[in-house]
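Entry for magnesium ion complex. Fields follow.
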Amino acid sequence: MTVSGSIELSDLKGVGPSTLEKLEKLGLNSVYDLLFHMPLRYEDKTRITEMAELRPLQTVQIQGEVVKAYIIQGRKPILVCEISDGLGLVSLKFFNFFYSQRIKMKAGSLIRAYGEVRAGSRGLDMLHPEYQHLQSASEPLAEYLTPVYPKSDGLSQKLLRKLIAQVLERLAAGQVDVTDHVPESHLQAHELPTLNEAIQAIHQPDSGTSTELMLNWSHPAQHRMMLEEILVHLLNLKKLKADIQSAGATALKIIEQQQQAFDAQLSFTLTGAQDRVIAEIHHDLQLDKPMQRLLQGDVGSGKTVVAAAAIMAALNNGHQAALMAPTEILAEQHLKTLSAFFSDKKLVFLSGSLNTADRRQALEEIATDADLIIGTHALFQEQVNYRNLALVVIDEQHRFGVQQRLALKQKGEASANIPHTLIMTATPIPRTLAQTVYANLDVSVIDELPPNRKQINTLLLSNEKMVQLAERIKKACGQGEQAYWVCTLIDESEKLHAIAATERMQELMEWFPELNIGLVHGRLKSEEKHQVMQAFVDNRIQLLVATTVIEVGVDVPNASLMVIDNAERLGLSQLHQLRGRVGRGNRQSHCVLMYQHPLSETAKIRLQTMRETNDGFAIARQDLKLRGPGEILGSRQTGAMAFRLINIERDHALINQARELAQELLETHPRACEQMVERWNQQQQDLAKI
Ligand code: ADP
Ligand code: MG
């Protein structure tokens, strides 16, 4: 067997530095990536269709003698070339052409053309077909269906095909290793070809291959490739899990009385689901292997108190715990909530916006006597040294990039022990997705909301009806309720967001001179944000105008009205998160989604879904349908979960097959598993290490 990776892209003919760069831009970093670069569709140039057989809207290859060629003059000239095979006639029409093309189309010469047949005014047309001049009628046809690859900036289809053909040659010569590590018995049972056969069949399908199956991703060759992709992903994460498991962690003692005392100081009784997940977490923390757990719970399900129960275990054992939140507002709120729980411990706050002196002090305390450190991703910057960190809690995980998670992991590796990790998310990831994406994590689910929560009543309202809405807000706030008004912008820039929110606030102040109105956005200084939020918590402000910075975590139970401006601009999960800011107290809450006509089809579906359900899982499933898993997990930008072939919604059966197979292979063929993982894209592997 050849050593994997022995052939580089640069070894291929036609690959210079600029092509290499273009390939890399497409995420094609190795010959294996090329093999996994799947065609979007196929063109059948293996045969000629007789003109007498042609039907409009077929895409076919035809061949015939030029009868005549001429240019129809008009505002936009059209080149017409009539060709005939003796049994029928087709007019090839070109709207963009060179005069030299017309010259070459001599009567009696032979032309082969590929394109879609249309019913024209006088017989059949083919509009700007691909064509070539032939020397003889028996010039060879394509041997295989011609693959058409996804749009590839600056790289021609021809070049891609050539490069892939070269890799296929090397494959045939045994210079590229695609030994199939999936047992033959499995392939037979599922009627799948070997990896080698599958790769060949996908890039150079025999003329008999059903393009329809290919287009539906239901060809066995495609299934084999998809199986490989998902299998490697799962093996990768399982290996990562095993690696971390083999490192040590601090076993924490859980003292029953302390937990009871903790429960007793709460102003509420924990739900059954909270009790259960706390027990699951405590079980892990008592082991000397690092916990790697994902805690899922819909907005408002009470994850913070679960985190506190975990943190308590670390602190009571004399160890440090760190809690990381995705935004400063949320981190500050956690600081406040947890200060109440841990009044006898030393809490330290660290975020990017601390001034130099405060930052220096925080760093010093973290290295010495801090117990609980709360902050933003600044917690995992290089300069931060912990005294004896035993637990890391990451709140609202889906907001974090892979890089940060990587950094976090390395942080653990620097010391002898790896901290236990609890990742919390309100994105209710559907089961299959969770088990696939987080195959390296154990999953706990809070599947119950605290009692007495009322369903949030959601209304859709056209922007034009803003005045009626204003009346309603005035009345509600007059009766002691509090409201959020969220401004949205398509633009990503914090600055523009801040401007939009500021303008909206000024408008609202004119409308409601009697109300106290506050404003928070990402550009405010930490201290200012804090003051405004505090004023809202204390009910000194009745109406809080905000950008989407309040999306996650913010908890003000008295707020019962949420208005979202131009809600059609936001995705489902974001809308659900925002709406989750209300409905936390005993009052009936309302969420008003304002929209601007005209709505796109997806925007309509999103808004209707929001109106119809409060169930985070139902919303997540719909979101998955509309957007696909990459975007839901926020990984478009970060590159995690970059499945090229697998579609989590579509490929349930295959994913389940792969999960079983991965387990089986790990037990029976551990060495083969390693080889499989090593073989595919190195870079991809690093990213998968979440
Ligand atoms: P999330 O899961 O969205 O982070 P939080 O932890 O912010 O939810 O909790 C939402 C609100 O519910 C908070 O005000 C919290 O004090 C309250 N809460 C949490 N658990 C319970 C419970 N078991 N009974 C009643 N209220 C609870
Ligand atoms: Mg929360």
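NOTE: The chain is about 40% helix and 20% strand.
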